[in-house]
TrEMBL record:
GO cellular component entries: membrane
Stretches assigned to the FAD-binding FR-type domain: 225-326
Record's bilayer topology term: Multi-pass membrane protein
Gene3D superfamilies registered for this protein in UniProt: Nucleotide-binding domain of ferredoxin-NADP reductase (FNR) module, Translation factors
This protein's name: Oxidoreductase FAD/NAD(P)-binding
Record's keyword annotation contains Kinase: no
Coarse class of the protein's main subcellular location: membrane
Length: 465
């Protein structure tokens, strides 16, 4: 990275608001939370004799705690939590934890049966069969089987042909069933539960909290969303593959957001239908009461957005997310957008323009071809009043690439493009905002890490959970 002395004026920094928790702090808190019930049982002197039994107990109790965290800490829909940890961080840990949870639950009966297998291998299968078919284990076996099916569905969700909405519904309802069955198993068969009332009470209370969170998302939240109607102002093609949707507040209610945040939009005709999709706001807060969005034509829902009628009622749940300029002290900003990722990025740029921000801002904007590029005239216009340089990155480059007013690069966003963006500046205290499809965000984040950009300087929003 070029770390020459800062050579140009740095404008006023945006107001400091709330600072989101870092990914590593989240992981630390998460690990402490999932170990807490076992630690509590240990401190209370409920430990079981023998290291192997203790290990199995630790894994079982931590597995239960992990599942409860999936509903609460890592739910992605609880504002009070997400505004502190960021929905992207939360979903990243949720997805990874889900995989470990599946392994842990899958191994659970086998780990319990292992000592008997070692002592009397010839009876091992019989023992396992008795364990699986005993009436006492029934709820545990149901929870075990259902969890494995649900986790496999989550991992393969893009390949099994189920619509995203159907998958999400199955995921929520299915896991409510799993947590209730698993809690019953823990308090009836689980060693601590069987002998200690307070452990039963703990699991039942935590299970109730988990189920309440789902009930809140499905039944209570839509009620407040229904009181915040918007109407469609316009929906037109913004590029060969993207819609540009504008909606407007249609009642007198408070709605504020920070540039870069996203909302869940429901165009189904009822605020109570769970047919909602997350989209990032592409307009700046100054455009309120209107909100605009860049929406890529991707699947069954986004392909039919052109059917939206002017004046049609829609509902907005939000704003959410911490992909904003808040609580940052950057002296320069690199914005890295892939495809529809330009949505929140143009929102941030518009906000910076409205604030007359004079810091160096570098936009690196990737697409497959020129027909997918949006806002080119606006970007040229912005560069007249802002310290903004835009580099277009394309896989298929036409002969006249890059267009006048832009820098250009053929291929993908790579180290050299990012390094070139900071030329002439000390980029040590710059922030890097990445937004685009998941593989693009991951690849660019890795490139930034290879360039020794501290994780605390990287903010990202993935267009998918
Ligand atoms: C925080 C966030 C912000 C986003 N911002 C934008 C944006 O500004 N512009 C944009 O074009 N796209 C954005 N997306 C992605 C957008 O939500 C999906 O592309 C869209 O919902 C696809 O719906 P579909 O039915 O047309 O496509 P499908 O082919 O059904 O889905 C494609 C993929 O989109 C995701 N997806 C689909 N439906 C939903 C849903 N209801 N909820 C969550 N994810 C879903 C899934 O990962 C799915 O695999 C964002 C996603 C997230 C998580």
């Amino acid at each position: 990275m070029n770390n020459k002395l800062l050579t140009r004026d740095v404008g006023q920094l945006p107001a400091i608001k709330r600072s989101p928790m870092s990914f590593y702090s989240l992981v630390t808190i998460y690990i402490m939370l999932i170990l807490a019930p076992w630690a509590l049982s240990y401190i209370e002197g409920l430990q079981i004799r023998g290291w192997y039994e203790e290990l199995v107990t630790l894994l079982s109790i931590s597995g239960m705690a992990m599942m409860l965290c999936q509903f609460t800490l890592l739910n992605g829909r609880v504002d009070a939590i997400n505004s502190r940890i960021g929905v992207d961080n939360s979903m990243r840990v949720h997805n990874k934890a889900g995989e470990y949870l599946a392994i842990l639950f899958f191994l659970h009966p086998f780990l319990i049966g292992l000592p008997r297998f070692i002592v009397a291998p010839s009876f091992a299968l019989d023992n396992l069969w008795i364990m699986f078919t005993s009436a006492e284990s029934a709820t545990g076996v149901y929870a075990w089987s259902l969890l494995i099916v649900l986790v496999l569905m989550a991992i393969k969700k893009n390949k099994i042909g189920l619509s995203y909405e159907a998958w999400r519904y199955t995921h929520s309802v299915g896991f409510v069933a799993v947590i209730i069955l698993a809690t019953h198993h823990a308090v009836t068969v689980g060693r601590h539960g069987r002998y200690n009332l307070w452990f039963d009470v703990l699991w039942i209370a935590l299970c109730a909290v988990a189920v309440s969170v789902v009930a809140y998302v499905y039944f209570i939240r839509p009620r407040s969303v229904s009181k915040r109607p918007f109407t469609v102002v316009d929906c037109h093609k913004g590029s060969a593959d993207d819609w540009y949707l504008t909606i407007k507040k249609d009642a007198d209610f408070q709605f504020e957001f920070d540039a870069g945040q996203f909302v869940w939009i429901n165009t189904s005709g009822s605020a109570f239908k769970r047919n909602e999709h997350p989209f990032s706001i592409a307009s700046s807060p100054r455009s309120l009461p209107e909100l605009s969005f860049v929406i890529r034509n991707l699947g069954d829902y986004t392909k039919q957005l052109g059917k939206l009628q002017t004046g049609q009622r829609v509902w907005v749940d939000g704003p959410h997310g911490v992909f904003t300029l808040n609580a940052r002290n950057a002296q320069g900003i690199v914005l890295l957008a892939g495809g529809a990722g330009i949505g929140p990025i143009i929102g941030i740029l518009r906000d910076l323009k409205n604030r007359a921000d004079t810091r160096p801002i570098r936009l690196i904007y990737g697409n497959r071809n020129m027909a997918q590029m949006m806002f080119l005239d606006e970007l040229i216009d912005m560069a007249k009043n802002m310290n903004l340089v835009t580099t277009l990155v394309l896989n298929d480059t036409p002969d006249d690439f890059p267009p006048i007013g832009f820098q250009g690069h053929k291929g993908f966003i790579n180290q050299s493009v990012i390094e070139a963006s900071g030329e002439g500046y000390n980029t040590q205290n710059w922030d890097y905002y990445i937004c685009g499809p998941q593989p693009m965000v991951k690849a660019v984040e890795t490139t930034l890490q290879q360039l020794d950009i501290p994780q605390s300087r990287i903010l990202y929003e993935q267009l998918g959970f």
